[in-house]
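Box 3.1. Reading complex inputs
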Amino acid sequence: MIIKPKVRGFICTNAHPEGCAANVREQIEYIKSQAPLGEGPKNVLIVGASTGYGLASRITAAFGYGAKTLGFFFEKPASEKRTGSAGFYNSAAFEAEASAANLYAKSINGDAFSNEAKRQAIEIIKQDLGKVDLVIYSLASPRRIDPETGETFSSALKPIGQSYTEKNLNTDTLKIADMTVETASDEEIANTVKVMGGEDWELWIDALKQADVLEQNCKTVAYTYIGDKLTWPIYGKATIGKAKEDLDRAANEINQSLSDLGGQANVAVLKALVTQSSSAIPIMPLYISILYKVMKEEGSHEGCIEQLHRLYTEGLYSEAPRLDDINRFRMDNRELTEAVQSKVEAIWPQVTEENLFELTDYKGYNAEFLKLFGFGNSDIDYDQDISPLVDVKF
Ligand code: NAD
């Protein structure tokens, strides 16, 4: 099969196995180049381990600290006729690299919101690891099936209180036009909290604790984004922001329930960058294109793996972690400086279709987007006929 990108709107419906493997190797090399990282995790469960921040969390644990990792994700396997999803190929590549480096790695492809996923995780932990000392919660999903009632909830990306009109870049046509997003109903807000809030994170930790597979002094972290004025109406102060606020509530609950183990739960605030999830959020592609331009110019640009390296070394395993007033690790500090935000805000109103490539780093954004699916790597011959099938144990 000759595999070229098939982009539909904000998603790419196929992926290149060799390109994805190269991306995984690049992140591994970055983390190895930062060694030694000092004291860190030994046995790690990552929920949402195949792409974006979860994959970088797994790579950092394994190749930065030599940790054993158990990863959960929801990905499309490859067949003779269709490529697998990027996360499927990433995970295949991660397992191959881990095995070559003699690192324990096991992966489960299935619905992490289900009770069955928790049961499977507990069984594998008991059998192979004994206990886990770090649980990373990095799910991003548009829907969730409630494990008790079987009801499906869908999240919405909408403002709260009033509709919102803002300039938006259509990444298919490169047209820039005002876009209006209607205000969310109470039901849409509640459903978004149900999908992306803290309930499932709590269910995971409860199940692990009840099964006695959490180590003394274990840590758990879930990821959020806060942003600033430009993105607040569609993110921070919108339906998704409400769901993320619920993570703060859940972190408090989990902290109480882990107190007898000396355990610790935190939310980590990470920066905006191109992932499959962020490219689906209105406004974000243009915001990120401008942000990349500004941060690359000032030399503070970071991708998933650089963020995760800092989260482990300056947050989770630091003796003086950078926490905010509600106990969240702040890794978005470089994005939110006054200097960066004021430059982004100054560029925002000036951007037009004509100057898009000059005033923003849309070129970089688009290259990063294609890279998520294994495309655009100059070392790979995309005209070559290859098999979409890869060797996997999950
Ligand atoms: P992503 O789309 O790259 O990764 C999502 C992961 O969740 C994948 O591994 C996917 O397989 C898994 N997943 C989705 N549904 C699942 C299910 N039902 N069962 C098992 N696995 C499932 O997203 P991301 O951008 O890396 O987001 C991860 C977290 O980081 C989210 O909480 C997100 O809000 C947060 N975050 C993202 C950004 C950003 O700019 N991308 C910024 C800050 C915080």
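In summary: Residues 48-54, 72-75, 87, 111-113, 138-141, 223-225, 270, 272-273, 275-278 surround nicotinamide-adenine-dinucleotide (CB under 6 Å).
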